[in-house]
Amino acid sequence: MDFALIAFYAFAAAAVLSAVAVIGARNPVHSALFLVLTFFTVACTWILAGAEFLGLALVLVYVGAVMVLFLFVVMMLDIDVARMREGYVRYLPVGLVVAVVMLAEMLALIGVRARAVEPFAGNAAAAAAVEGNTHWLARALFTEFMLPFEVAAVILTVAVIAAVMLTLRRREGAKHQDPLDQARVRAADRVRLVRMEAVRPAPAAGDQAGEPQESKA
Predict the structure, then answer these.
(1) Closest by alpha carbon to 45, among 14, 18, 78?
(2) Alpha carbon distance 149, 140 (integer Å)
(3) How far is the C-alpha of 213 from the C-alpha of 207, rounded, in Å?
(4) The domain 3-122: what is its CATH number?
(5) Three-state SS across the chain?
(6) CB count, 10 Å around CB of 52?
(7) Residues 6+ away with beta carbon under 8 Å from 136
(8) Over pLDDT 90: what percentage of the chain?
(9) What per-residue string of b and e applies to 166-180 under the rule 16 or more CB within 10 Å gives b?
(10) What is the pTM of this model?
(11) Per-residue pLDDT tens over the stretch 62-115
């Protein structure tokens, strides 16, 4: 068994364990950290298999932009936000574990590439080596797999919209905006001029005793 195959099994085991930790962690911040580890481990597996473009895209797109979207959806859920903002000290152990595992995976991946071991991805990697990984992937994605690609995009969009709509329920005491009413607003409905008669304040007790009263016109 060569070093590349051992690294592949290690990456696969780490990806499965981190994915289980995502759904098993009680804290949503811990779940987000384990999800970052899952994405990074799968990206290492793809790079090991010869799909460099997919690995880099997974790190740049999912670990970067999509994780921000996931955290935005998590913050809209009914969770104790004040407890989550108590400090980063209690999140430090999990963050250190994730960072150490990611560092070990990077070192293992560098070691595999340094040994110049051929990736074991089959005919797909051979075709990508001839015409380029990016060119081959674009041609296959937008010709043979166009429908699954669009279906996956629609499913992700529906999932995010459904998560937002499930959290937007009416709560007692919460204020909500109505864009239709805001567009129909008029100055006469918001501002009213009221005419009031001027009333002189009653003099204090000291003014009655030691100071002369002003004459009224």
Answers:
(1) 14
(2) 11
(3) 8
(4) 1.20.120.1200
(5) CCHHHHHHHHHHHHHHHHHHHHHHCCCHHHHHHHHHHHHHHHHHHHHHCCCHHHHHHHHHHHHHHHHHHHHHHHHCCCCCHHHHCCCCHHHHHHHHHHHHHHHHHHHHHHHHHHCCCCCCCCHHHHHHHHHCHHHHHHHHHCCCCHHHHHHHHHHHHHHHHHHHHHHCCCCCCCCCCCHHHHHCCCHHHHCCCCCCCCCCCCCCHHHHHHCCCCCCC
(6) 16
(7) 124, 127, 128
(8) 4
(9) eeeeeeeeeeeeeee
(10) 0.54
(11) 887 777 777 777 766 655 555 555 555 666 787 788 888 888 888 887 777 666
Q: Which residues contact 72 (CB under 8 A, 6 or more apart)?
A: none
Sign, CA torsion 90/93/96/98: negative
C-alpha span between 20 and 110 (Å, rounded): 26
- Cα three-residue angle 205-209-210, rounded to 5 degrees: 120
**Please, which contacts does 22-25 make with residues 24 or more away whose CB atoms are closer than 8 Å?**
none
Please state, in angstroms and as integers, the Cα–Cα distance from residue 114 to each residue in 4, 42, 110, following that order: 11, 20, 6
Which tokens is 154 given?
């629609």
Q: How many CA atoms lie within 13 A of 88 on its CB side?
A: 4
Which residue bears the tokens 């481990």? 41
Are 67 and 36 contacting, i.e. CB atoms less than 8 angstroms apart? yes
